[in-house]
Predict the 3D structure of the following.
Amino acid sequence: MILNQVIFSKKAQSKGFDEDKNSEKPLRSVLKALSWRVIGTLDTLVVSYLLTGELVLATSIASVDFLTKLLLYFFHERIWNKIKWGK
């Protein structure tokens, strides 16, 4: 799904269809999501370790957290990017 949006965006631009000047390209949203998830996952890892005292369990929790929240953040950004309010 994410790659489909990136590919569609590039095809639209190559055919002369520019996105709204105020909107972000999907690749930028992906990179923002990745960088934020690295920070968030480190936080989850530390908190999980402090609460459980088990590194393996904390790593498992942080891994699931990384994947689910990465996808949620990406779609959250794309939806908000379509909302004109406040731009």
